[in-house]
Amino acid sequence: MITTLEPITYKFEPANLSPNDYKSDLHPIWCPGCGDFGVLASFYKAVAEQHIPTEQLVVVSGIGCSGRFPAFVNAYGLHGTHGRALPLATGVKMAHPELVVVAAGGDGDAFSIGMGHVPHAIRRNVDITYIVMDNEIYGLTKGQASPTSPVGMERKASPYGTVETPINPLLFALASGASWVGRGFSSRPKELVDLVKAAMQHKGFSLVQVLSPCVTFYDTYDHFKQISKPLPADHNPRDRMSAIKYAMDEATLYLGLFYQEERPTYDEGYAAKRAQAAKPNYGIKEIMGKYMR
Ligand SMILES: Cc1ncc(C[n+]2csc(CCOP(=O)(O)OP(=O)(O)O)c2C)c(N)n1
Ligand code: SF4
Ligand SMILES: [Mg+2]
Questions:
Q1: What is the 3-state secondary structure (H, E, C) of 224-255?
Q2: What does the DSSP assignment read for 176-207?
Q3: Is 64's C-beta closer than 6 angstroms to any atom of ligand 1?
Q4: Which residue has the higher pLDDT, 8 or 111?
Q5: pTM score of the predicted model
Q6: Ligand 2 midpoint to CA 35 (Å)
Q7: d(CA 203, CA 261)
Q8: Is pLDDT above 70 for 106?
Q9: What number does the ligand 1 atom closest to the CA of 214 have?
Q10: How confident is the model at residue 281 (pLDDT cuts 50, 70, 90)?
């Protein structure tokens, strides 16, 4: 059981919906067996168990097979441009802090073209959940190496094997100061439901890396099954150094909640500034006057 520090309380009338009620009319067009099916099913359950009304939920993505995610959810959705899920999600959250905002996408979308946005969402601590379906490849464009592909990966587009050292998404997030970091596996749906729920309940930016194999271009099911296991029971998710130690282990892909901490969110910070600016004698003229000589 994953506990949250101070569960978020959204201001909405709880909905009484089943996971099926969160399915849109569109049937996923992913290849049979794609890991993203498991992620989507876990997501339906996670939002149903939190009783989130469909009109309070927004799912935002960039481009990729996994980027189709919002289309399959009965909620507001935004299928944006490649790598831009986080700025879009940030904009939605800042304009409507009362909404539950989730960004979803792939390893390429997140850590290749979208990488410039990740540390900024982390440091701002925007109150959104980012679900990254990591299949260690570009699925949509037929199997090119991604930033999480292992060294030496031989595919059609890299016939002699890749040479770059992969990015370790959790290590990167932890080193950047992320306030919530976890890892799940599409083949372990029960744990994934709890993990996604805990991420969404966290007040601040949460990154969920989900091992989600691409059966068509890079089938890592057996490999992920062999090398993944839950974090040890004595791991303290308030201990960043312990989280970093487990994230650095590349021989074992640990699953579960690595790290969580409470700190002010971006929308809270801005709301406070807005309130400050509304005070008498605190308009832009008075403030700018301070700096004019
Ligand atoms: C600006 C731009 N550059 C490149 C592309 C081509 N493109 C589409 S999806 C993609 C990679 C997707 O990989 P990933 O994010 O891992 O998603 P997956 O398909 O594996 O779920 C690329 C390079 C694009 N659509 N837009
Ligand atoms: S190409 Fe890969 S990532 Fe895309 S739908 Fe098929 S199995 Fe999934
Ligand atoms: Mg991918």
A1: HHHHEEECCCCCCCCCHHHHHHHHHCCCCEEE
A2: TT-SEEEEEETT-HHHHHHHHHHHHHSSS-EE
A3: yes
A4: 111
A5: 0.96
A6: 8
A7: 9
A8: yes
A9: 20
A10: confident
Which is nearest to 106 in space by CA: 77, 82, 71? Answer: 82
DSSP secondary structure, 10-78, as one string: -SSPPP---GGGGB-SSPP-SPTT-THHHHHHHHHHHHHHTT--GGGEEEEE-SSSGGGGGGGBSSEEE
Q: Which two tokens stand for residue 272?
A: 């406070």
- Domains of the chain and any CATH numbers: 19-262 (3.40.50.970), 264-293 (no CATH)
pLDDT of residue 280: 80
CA atoms of 133 and 35, how far apart (whole Å) = 8
Kind of pairing, strands 180-185 and 253-260? antiparallel
Which residues have C-beta within 8 Å of that of residue 239, sequence separation ≥ 6? 259
Q: Whose CA is nearest to atom 13 of ligand 1?
A: 138
The residue whose C-alpha atom lies closest to atom 26 belonging to ligand 1 is: 82
The per-residue pLDDT for 6 is: 65
**What is the Cα Rg of the chain in Å?**
20
**pLDDT at residue 19, as a whole number:** 98
Read off the DSSP letter of residue 283: S
pLDDT digits (tens, 9 = 90+) for 222-247: 999 999 999 999 999 999 999 999 99
Which residue, by CA, sits nearest to atom 2 of ligand 2? 214
Phi, psi of 98 (to 5 degrees): -75, -10
- Ligand 2 center to 169 CA (angstroms): 20
Confidence band for 5, pLDDT divided at 50, 70 and 90: low
Core vs surface per residue 237-251: b (16+ CB within 10 A) or e: beebebbbebbeeee
pLDDT of 278 reads 85
Q: Which residues line ligand 2 (CB under 6 A)?
A: 30-31, 34, 36, 65, 135, 139-140, 214-217
